[in-house]
Structures are given as structure tokens and as C-alpha cells.
Amino acid sequence: MSLNRIDRRDLLQVGCSSFLGLSLPALLQAAENRRNGKSVILVFQTGGGSQLETFDPKPDAPDHIRGEFKTIQTKIPGVLFGEHLPKLAERTDKIAVVRSFSHGDNRHLSGTHNTLTGEPQVFRGNANEDKELSRLDRPSYGGGVKLINPTINGMPCQVTLPRPLIEGPLTWPGQHAGFLGPKYDPWQVNSDPNGKDFKVHGIQMMDGITTSRLTNRVDFLKRMNHQQRSLDRFAKGIQFTSQQEEALNLLTSPNIAKAFDINAESDELRDKYGRSEYGQTLILARRLVEHGVPYVQCNMGIVQSWDTHSDNFPRLKDKLLPGIDNGVSALMDDLEERSMLDDVLIVVVGEFGRTPNINKNPGRDHWASGYSGIFIGGGVRGGQVIGKSDKHAGHPETTPYHPNDIGATVYSTLGVDPATIIRDRENRPLHLNNGKVMEKLYTG
Description:
Layout: H1 8-19, H2 24-36, E1 39-45, H3 63-66, E2 71-73, E3 80-82, H4 86-89, E4 95-101, H5 108-117, H6 141-148, E5 158-161, E6 166-167, E7 170-171, E8 187-189, E9 203-205, H7 211-216, H8 218-231, H9 235-252, H10 254-259, H11 267-273, H12 277-290, E10 295-299, H13 312-337, E11 344-350, E12 353-354, E13 366-367, E14 371-377, E15 384-386, H14 403-413, E16 421-423, E17 429-431, H15 440-443
Helix pairs in contact: 5-14, 12-13
């Protein structure tokens, strides 16, 4: 990328990034990396999906471990999936199944932070389960990308669909740019793409500033910003102003409008994805990466939808598994038909798995010691199983993979070196990510 191709916005980005430790040459290289980079769609099983009913069933285990579901043969000889994933089972020649994820955190909030940022949440002196979203947190993937390898097409670096992970007073950590500040926050849709009234105005920032509110109050904001500049000319004020400006730019961007126009898709294709929130979220994710958004996080359900402490089997059978099976298989086919599958990495995973033992409810409880996920596209070699679990799918028998390694793989796919040094709010140098890229995904 040549210097004469950098516009005013790029130069403003250079200035803000230099404040956080990135130089002009680094930004120039980052822009070139972004042009050559791939995209990532994270299909997040919020609450923790069961490995035994999905990608690592154990048909020979005792009843209290095996569960109610049967198994089906996949395209990989000798490899079984749960019976309610027939479409994905038919496509395993393009899927890498990982059966050796493991970490030590059975708590939803901090486990979610680790999965959505690629780094553990910093302990702040109280129980991790009580730690909601904080500016001391690590940045979400889109925040890291925007700092180091920003888009040059006017599109956001991350969009999260279809709504934020919030339950009661708690907002799950890992959903914004953490200590990088509001300027690097992702864009958050807060409406069902399957709804008849779904429009771009459903977009908002994590702090609640919506594009529609901003548009309706431009004059007010100008007056407020004038007062703000008189009171505070430092970083916080600059970030707040840039956040407002970006919201307005987003609302008026023709590319954004096109990307979110889900009604431009044929009824036939929308039906293939499934006329559900899950399916329409995934077709919208495809539209976003197609229009240049590098990272899209798809929350499969509300907070803890996959947290099946009770009624595990009917909940999985009736909604959760069909939504994933229809939606992800349609996404695979759609990307392949558009010659995009090699350029888009799809990751399907939760913050942890479920206990091998079925409880009295009957359900399965939190289990981070061993769980599974799948990787598709983005250069991944399909038709393989990576790692092996024990006879009850409770612990890896091979070298385990950590959520940090998912993070390193995501960043690497997006053209970002995971070992890049960034600085926190105390100006301390940190590696963006401390995991290792999962090379076996690509080499077998």
C-alpha cells in the first residue's frame, strides 16, 4: 500500500494508534496485511455446548454418560457425531474436529472472556463469577484488529450478532475492546435478523450509544462536544468524539446499508439457512464478511442458552442442535458457492463443555476440563480429527488446546501477529495474545 493511498481517516488512525505504541510504518504494514487477510466468523455456543451430544459422542459409555441420543457416521471413516447433526456429518470432509480443548475455568463470565478475547480475564480481587464487563479487560478480537490491522474500506472491524450477552445486571466480559478504550469497540446488533422489522438501526455500541440516537441528536452532540472540549482535551474526550463520528459514518455508509440488507437474499437461500434467529444470524454474518468486515461474532442464543443443567436432551433436540446444523451447513455451502470458503474461517465452540455424568435433572453441568469444537474454511484441512479425549469425553488424552490457542489462530487468520506488543491502561507492555496458532488445523 503506497503512502498516497492513505486518506485523512487513515492518518487520524495513525495518530491514535501511535498513542498506543504503533508507529506509522507499522500502520502501513498493517493496512497491507488487512488487504491480504482473511475473515473469521465465530459461532459461539454461549453457556457451553455438550461435547457428548455433538462432536465427541461416546456410544459405548454407560447410560449415565452416553445419554439419550444415538450417533451417526460422518464422512470421516470411524468418526461419529450426535444424531441431531446430520447435515454437518455429511460435510466433515470440509471440517476439522478438535476433541482436546481444555482449561481450568468452569465459570461462565471469565470463561467467556477467555474465548472472546483469547486471553484469561485479569483477577480484580473479587470472585471471577462476579466480574462483568470492565475497561480493565483484554480487547475483543475486533478491537485488536482495529488497533493493529484496521480495515481500509470504512467497515467496522467487528460486528457482534444478534444481541449482546447480558443477563440481569451483568454484562458478560470480553464483548468490547477493554483497556484499548471505546474507539476500538465492536459494533453490536441488538435485534433479531429473522424479524420482519430488522433494519440497520438495530446497531449500537456496547455503552448504549446507538446510531439512531446519534443521528437524531447531531446538533445536540455538536454543542455537547464543544463543552466537552473545554473541559477535557485528553484521550477520553478524543475517544468519545471519535466514537460518535464513527457511528454517524456507519449509519450513512452505503456499504454498511448493503451489508445489512438481509432482504436482498432470496427466500430460497434464507429458507436453507433456517427461518430462525440462528439461521438468519449466520446468513447476515456471511453478508458482513462479504462486504469486508473481518470478524463477526454470532451469539447462538441469549446468555447461557447452551447451559443445559436441566432438560439437556429436549433443549438440544428441539432448538439448539437444529439451529447449528442447518445454519452452519448452509453457511459452508453458501461460502463455497461464492468461492469464499478458503477466505473465511468458521469456528464453532463454547466457553467450555458439559460434564460426562448426567445429573438428576437430567442435564449436564459446567465442564472446562475437556470439550470439543469445529473449524471450517480459512485454509483449514477438512476431514480430520485433532486430539483425542478419554473414554467418557472428560479429559484430553493428547496435548490439549486452550482458548488462548483459539485466540492465536483467530488473530493469525486476520493477519495479526498474536505476539504483537500492546500497552494496557498503566502503559505496561503486554503480548496481544499468549497462545499458539493451532498449526494442525492446516497441516493435519
